[in-house]
Amino acid sequence: MFHHLTRAAATAALLALAACGTTAPPVSTSESPASTTTSDASPAEGTTAPEAAGPISVVDGRGRTVELPAAAENVVALEWGEAEILLSLGANLVGIADPQGFSTWDKAVALPDGIQDVGMRSEPSVESILALDPDVVVLSGADTSQVDRQLEGKVPVVFSTGSKAGQDLDRLRGDVELFAQVLGDAAAGEALLTEMDEALESATSRVSEAGAAGTPFLMADGWKEGSVVNIRMFAKGSMVDEIATSIGLVNAWTQPGDEAWGLGVTDVEGMAGFTAEDLRLFYSASEDDVFADGLAENPIWQSLPFVQQGRIHKLAPGTWTFGGSASVISIAEQFAAAVESER
Q1: What family is this (predicted)?
Q2: pLDDT, tens only, 169-178
């Protein structure tokens, strides 16, 4: 029988870790449109195709109609996943929240030279944003900083769609289409989604050819509190789960995750029941590697078949598990390469 943290403890741990800026954005289940909502359409359905040199009207991830005088040229992004999408679309990103953290945790795309730091994701600097004179500021739909209120009337703000477990890939598609419209380049959005779909199809074929379709996996990251290693599990509905299951693998973690990100928390005792001989563990660690350093002498950990058989795969540092299409492609590639390596 697995040992699991209580829901309250798990939630507190997730929030504390997120606040450090080293993992997911703060867990939020708020998806309510702003009070200025003028349409209930999704971004993909409610966004109008722009003229190359004319005004643009989009419906963003919170259902708000945002009017732009022309396609946005200079853009500021206050969340890493949104910044990754914008860069993948060719946007001129002039400012980002916590660029140092982005460069550590999301290496799927590189930041341009000279990009400006506009504060932390949870505490952006309005003065720094406005000093860049951007055409638009892009925020996460899960943003709780309320910086949009301080920017109101000064610069247009576009929200992405907030994360919701089990719908992240669809949500990502809508955000790509929305941002492409903001940039006045719908074709770039279509090309980016085609590239992602082709990468997922390729990874699916590779998993099948490796004879690994239908085999179980676990995905985790972790952190230490004193000598205790806390393990954060990517449950069914997390973005990584959606990627892995779409290419043919099966998530062995059956406990529910949170509603926004599909994440749960356990400890090494909670892993003790995972004894299937064909089980693989994937994990991410862009800074401290608690799996290699914190569990090396733990007898429970060392007794697990996937540890004894070396069926542990560390994702490349800088693999952002809450990112955009470039991150999706990277994760699918790494999962496919891992199962191929075990043939």
Answers
A1: Belongs to the bacterial solute-binding protein 8 family.
A2: 999 999 999 9
